[in-house]
Amino acid sequence: MLTIFLFWSLILLKLISALTIKGQLDVTPYNLSTFKISNTRFRLQQIGSLDSNKHPIKATAYIQDPDGSFEFNNIEVDERINKTTRFVIYPLSKDFNVKPNRVLVEFFMNENGTLETKGFRNYFGREYFPSKDIKFPEKLDPIDIKPMVRFSLVQKQPFRNYLQVRNPGVLKSGMIANILHSPWKMALVLIALTVIIFPIYVENFDPETVKLMKEQRRKQQREKYQIPN
Ligand SMILES: *[C@@H]1O[C@H](CO)[C@@H](O)[C@H](O)[C@H]1NC(C)=O
Ligand SMILES: *[C@@H]1O[C@H](CO)[C@@H](O)[C@H](O)[C@H]1NC(C)=O
Ligand SMILES: *[C@@H]1O[C@H](CO)[C@@H](O)[C@H](O)[C@H]1NC(C)=O
C-alpha cells in the first residue's frame, strides 16, 4: 500500500511542475501609488484539476509595486505529454473598471517536452469561457501573455463611484428621512401637526381677534339656519 502511494507520489512529483504566473495592471494615465493598492486584487481559479483527489487551485494575488505587478506563485501545471492545464484569472477592484474581465491561461505540454503557454480574453457580459465539453463553443480571442498577463482600465470609465457619505445628516438618513421620503407618512405627520398646532395657534391670537372670529362664525351660523338676532 505504502509503496503504491510512494510510487504515485513520485510520478506526480515528476509530472507536475510549479511555476509562477506574472501579471501587471496598467492604470495609465493615473498613478497607482496614489491609490490604496489593496483595493485591487486578482483571483486565479483552475478549471478542472490534475487528478480527482485534488481540488482545483484557487489563489489571490495583490499588487506589489507602483508598476502594478502581481504574481501567482507555485502554480502546479501538468507536465505529461499532450496534457493541458487551464486557469482563469480575473480582476477584483473597488477603484477601477479593469479589462479584460477574465483571462484564460492555458499550459500545454508538447511532445518535444516544451511547455506551450496561451492566453485568451473574455468579453464583458460573457460569464464563462467555452469549454471543450461544450458542443458549439464561442471562438476564443487570443492575447499575448508573455512575459505577463496584462490588465488595463476600461476607457472613459476609469473610476468606480462607490462614494458613501458617512454622516449624511438627519434629513438624508434615519427616521426623519424615512418619513420625508414617504408621501403617506408625510401626510400623516401633516394631519397630526394640524390637529396639534391649530388650536395652539388660535389661542395665541389676541383676544379681540378671537372674539371677532367667534362673532363672525356665530353670524354665519345664524344666517345659515336663518335664526333671527
Ligand atoms: C507616481 O507618484 C510617485 C509618488 O507620488 C512618484 O514617485 C512617481 O514617479 C509617480 N509615477 C509616475 C509614473 O508618474
Ligand atoms: C500526443 O498527441 C499527438 C497528436 O494528437 C499524438 O500523435 C501523440 O501520439 C500523442 N502523444 C502522447 C504521448 O499521447
Ligand atoms: C516543440 O513542438 C512545438 C509544436 O509542435 C513547436 O512549436 C516548437 O517549436 C517545438 N520546440 C522545440 C524546441 O522543438
UniProtKB/TrEMBL annotation:
It is a single-pass type I membrane protein. GO terms for biological process: protein transport. GO terms for cellular component: endoplasmic reticulum membrane. Residues 1-18 form the signal peptide. InterPro entries: Sop4. Keywords: Endoplasmic reticulum, Glycoprotein, Membrane, Protein transport, Signal, Transmembrane, Transmembrane helix, Transport. It is found in: Endoplasmic reticulum membrane. The chain crosses the membrane at residues 184-202. Its main location: endoplasmic reticulum. Belongs to the SOP4 family. Involved in the export of PMA1, possibly through the monitoring or assisting of PMA1 folding and acquisition of competence to enter vesicles. This is Protein SOP4. It comes from Arxiozyma heterogenica.
